[in-house]
Design brief:
Largest sheet: 7 strands, parallel
CATH architecture of the largest domain: 3-Layer(aba) Sandwich
CATH class of the largest domain: Alpha Beta
CATH topology of the largest domain: Rossmann fold
Number of helices: 15
């Protein structure tokens, strides 16, 4: 059996949720795969780091010929036309136009359908403005005006195409499956399988000495106590609302610490910066941008509270990481978040900065009961998830698609 895997996301240098999902699955597949099966890892560039360390039944195939844009739909499609594997697994919902009949994909969430205003309508692409304009017009003509070449429409088109053409569709929470079926139709219910995500347990082995912690804190001009958020800095994640809550925490509850926002800027990041300036919080909101995995986890473990105020999530790996390293969690009471955290977090209304501020203050000040209870419950909750379990269930679905 030849199993092809789109490893382009796993090979990204600056990984976030979907990229880490792809990376950890491939790393676990290397341990559990049948040595008689061959795995081909397709990527835009040569594999990096530990991803490039391949068992004898894994091979790398770099698809790096022109054009540079639309890698999935041009280069991966061409590869599928010329030399298609028995099964293709794409760990995101963008499958190539040309694909094997046994194609398995992961549709993480459908927030772009539920909250379209939270997604950018800006034309995307790596070309000149004129070429992007022509491409947008061409896509509009080919789709009879239904789609353009922007992030929002690309999500919409890719999800529909994947649901229609993939043999099996994986998703990452019961909430996401419910949303997919509700928004796209009950006809897809039987082909959708829920396999939860996990966290990397090796984060517990990092150097957490006082010297290393102080070095990282000093590097990013962070002082304790501080509240931490990890994720993309965009409207969907409710970061502007988090700034409102942080202002309330400082003014109404006299919290004298910092708010640290780790992640890359996204859609409507300008609103975040406007809020920071409006409240004169430039010296109290720290924006390190993207940091290394080690630095991220050191900062996480050093935080007083991990806060996750998102409007919409398919899962939320940082929630598991916070619980695993013993940091109390305050998070939204919407979407998949309650499903992920169980009883191990304080859940709040993301539309209420006042509720967010008050709940965070309660955790910060209640050292001997609420905080300790959240930490203990978090440890136990995080133990229920592992990439090994996720990979075993995923590989089972991939292999069973050939016979279904």
């Amino acid at each position: 059996m030849v199993i092809g895997i789109d490893a382009s996301r796993a090979n990204e240098v600056k990984k976030t949720g979907t990229e880490w999902y792809a990376y950890h699955l491939i790393q676990e597949f290397k341990k559990i795969a049948d040595p008689n099966d061959q795995f081909i890892l397709y990527s835009k560039e040569p594999l990096r780091g530990e991803l490039a360390e391949l068992p004898s039944n894994f091979v790398s195939k770099v698809l790096n010929w022109p054009p540079k844009f639309l890698w999935t739909q041009v280069r991966l499609s061409l590869e599928m036309l010329l030399k298609r594997p028995s099964i293709l697994f794409v760990p995101a919902h963008t499958i190539p136009f040309i694909h094997p009949k046994n194609t398995v994909t992961t549709l993480h969430d459908v927030g772009f359908e539920r909250f379209s205003k939270l997604y950018s309508k800006k034309i995307i692409g790596y070309q000149s403005s004129f070429i992007k304009f022509l491409l947008n017009i061409l896509i509009r003509l080919l789709t009879l005006g239904k789609y353009g070449s922007n992030e929002y429409d690309y999500h919409r088109f890719s999800a529909r195409f994947a649901l229609k053409h993939a043999k099996t569709v994986l998703t990452i929470s019961k909430f996401s499956k419910k949303e997919i079926v509700e928004l796209f139709g009950v006809k897809y219910d039987r082909k959708i399988n829920v396999i939860p995500l996990a966290h990397d347990k090796s984060i517990l082995e990092f150097d957490y000495s006082s010297a290393r912690i102080n070095q990282v804190l000093k590097q990013y001009h962070i002082s304790q106590p501080f509240i931490l958020y990890i994720g993309r800095l965009e409207e969907k994640k409710n970061i502007a609302g988090l700034i409102d809550a942080f202002h309330s925490l400082r003014s109404d509850y006299v919290f004298d610490g910092q708010l640290v926002l780790i992640g890359k800027s996204g859609y409507r990041f300008d609103a975040v910066m406007q809020n920071i300036k409006k409240y004169n919080l430039e010296n109290f909101v720290i924006l390190p941008g993207w940091v290394t995995e080690e630095e991220r986890v050191i900062l996480l473990r050093s935080a007083a509270v991990f806060i996750f105020p998102s409007f919409y999530e398919g899962f939320g790996i940082p929630l598991l990481e916070a619980m695993a390293v013993g940091v109390p969690v305050v998070a939204s009471n919407v979407a998949s978040i309650p499903e992920v955290v169980g009883d191990a977090a304080v859940l709040v209304d993301p539309n209420s900065p006042e509720d967010l501020a008050k709940s965070t203050y309660n955790v910060l000040c209640n050292q001997n009961s609420l905080r300790d209870s959240l930490v203990n419950r978090g440890y136990n909750r995080a133990k229920n998830f592992s990439w090994e379990k996720t990979a075993i269930a995923t590989l089972k679905q991939i292999m069973s698609s050939i016979n279904s």
